[in-house]
Design a protein that fits this description.
The chain is α+β, with helices and mostly antiparallel strands. 50% of the residues lie in helices and 15% in strands. The strands form three sheets. The protein has a four-stranded mixed beta sheet with strand order 1-4-5-8, with helices on one face. A four-stranded antiparallel beta sheet has the order 2-3-7-6, with helices on one face. Strands 9-10 form a two-stranded antiparallel sheet. Helix 8 runs antiparallel to helix 9. The longest helix is centred in the middle third of the chain and has 37 residues. The protein binds flavin-adenine dinucleotide (FAD).
Length: 381
């Protein structure tokens, strides 16, 4: 189902093969160790860069190959379908989320400074919006940036930040003005070797255990004034412009992981027997699989429509929110039913469905919760 879709061409098929091989050769042998340690190894980033799997949309002038976003979708699909949702999430935040802010809103100098490293993996990027006191309500953030001559001085705490342990730059949502108005917030890039920047612990999670997720502390961190991304007070318009891509890619990874759960389960119920026959011989099992297969077909049709629109520059906030809402919720239904069809083995970590189940849960939370997606969609009824 992943390949042979008319939104992709031969060049995407080649990158799909490359990403699938990379997952098998460079992730699979280390994955259990990373899951045990609760974080991917930093060397993964250099290997991804070397393989050409990081940020392929970056123009050649800045070290990339200047391809289109569909290539990012193919890479995200393959890492997720391979069952490596944690590493896939790390890569996605770097390449599918952070990159957009620099590519679309950065100055020439900022692009020269950071993009080549993001392509070769020597620079890992993170984006810090959420704080201990607020996540859904971004206008409630308390991290401040104060202008002091030719510098911004940043104070605050961020939490749940993907790539928090390994990141070299953090696109930080800060309050540069007063009040709740959207004009009071700015995006500032913070290099993590600045004085006053500190990483908290790598957070322990239910699923996506090897994904790198941390608290970050900013204590009078001084960064040059030209680390401001876009104009002062323009964080909200930039976030509004970039969040649809983030939500689309979450939907893309959910589709691939849900498809994997279905494929594994279909094979399992053909092999496993009870009462003298394969589980799939039960009509109730076949009907359940028929429901799941239908859900997947509908999901692929919609996600492909959204990818096509995004490629044409026409993906709206509403489309992206509907894709994230429906597809991540669908993934939740699929992994739950698939786990059930595995019986007790589904609850065992030795079985891949167990991890797919746990890894799926956060898809309905980060990038904006399902409830927030409904809020956004309901603005355009
Ligand atoms: C593994 C992981 C990785 C993450 N990575 C990042 C990252 O890289 N960068 C980053 O900035 N953040 C990241 N996040 C944070 C994530 O985006 C937030 O957790 C999410 O936006 C929800 O915010 P919250 O946790 O503060 O929940 P809250 O905003 O406190 O919401 C709690 C509950 O209330 C509901 N709710 C809130 N407002 C409304 C409303 N108006 N109407 C109805 N229901 C409402 C929510 O839907 C939710 O169910 C990550 C989170 C996780 C778990």
């Amino acid at each position: 189902m992943l390949a042979h879709r008319d939104i992709y061409d031969d060049s995407h098929a080649q990158v799909r093969d490359l990403a699938r091989r990379f997952a098998a050769e460079e992730i699979a042998p280390h994955f259990d160790t990373w899951e045990r340690e609760g974080i991917v190894d930093r060397s993964l980033w250099g290997k991804l860069g070397e393989a050409g799997l990081l940020c392929p949309t970056v123009p050649e002038d800045f070290g990339g190959i200047g391809t289109d976003f569909r290539m990012h979708c193919v890479i995200a699909e393959e890492l997720s379908y391979s069952g490596f949702m944690g590493p896939a999430a790390d890569v996605s935040v770097h390449a599918d989320v952070c990159l957009g802010y620099l590519l679309h809103h950065g100055t020439q100098a900022q692009k020269e400074r950071w993009l080549p490293g993001m392509v070769d993996g020597s620079i890992v990027a993170a984006i810090a919006m959420s704080e201990p006191g607020t996540g859904s309500d971004l206008q409630g953030i308390r991290t401040t940036a104060r202008r002091d001559e030719d510098a911004w001085v940043i104070n605050g705490v961020k939490t749940f930040i993907s790539n928090g342990q390994h990141c070299d730059i953090v696109i930080t949502v800060t309050r540069t003005g007063t009040g709740r108005g959207s004009g009071a917030m700015s995006l500032i890039v913070v290099e993590t070797d600045r004085d006053g920047f500190r990483r908290g612990r790598n957070l322990e999670k239910l699923g996506q255990i090897s994904a790198d997720t941390s608290e970050l502390f900013f204590d009078d961190v001084r960064v040059p004034a030209d680390n401001l991304l876009g104009a002062e007070g323009q964080a909200m318009p930039m976030l509004m412009a970039e969040l649809p891509q983030e939500r689309l890619i979450i939907a893309v990874t959910s589709m691939a992981a849900a498809q994997k759960a279905y494929d594994l389960t279909r094979a399992y119920v053909q092999e496993r027997t009870a009462f003298g026959r394969a589980i799939i011989e039960n009509q109730v099992t076949r009907h359940k699989l028929a429901d799941l297969k239908t859900d997947l077909a509908v999901g692929w049709a919609f996600v492909d429509q959204c990818i096509r629109k995004h490629h044409a520059g026409e993906l709206s906030t509403f489309d992206a929110s509907m894709a994230k809402l429906w597809i991540t919720e669908m993934q939740g239904r699929v992994v739950d039913q698939c786990l059930q069809l595995h019986g007790g083995y589904g609850f065992m970590r030795d079985y891949e469905i167990c991890r797919l189940y746990a890894d799926a849960r956060v898809q309905r939370i980060y990038g904006g919760t399902s409830e927030i997606m409904k809020e956004l969609i309901s603005r355009n009824l």
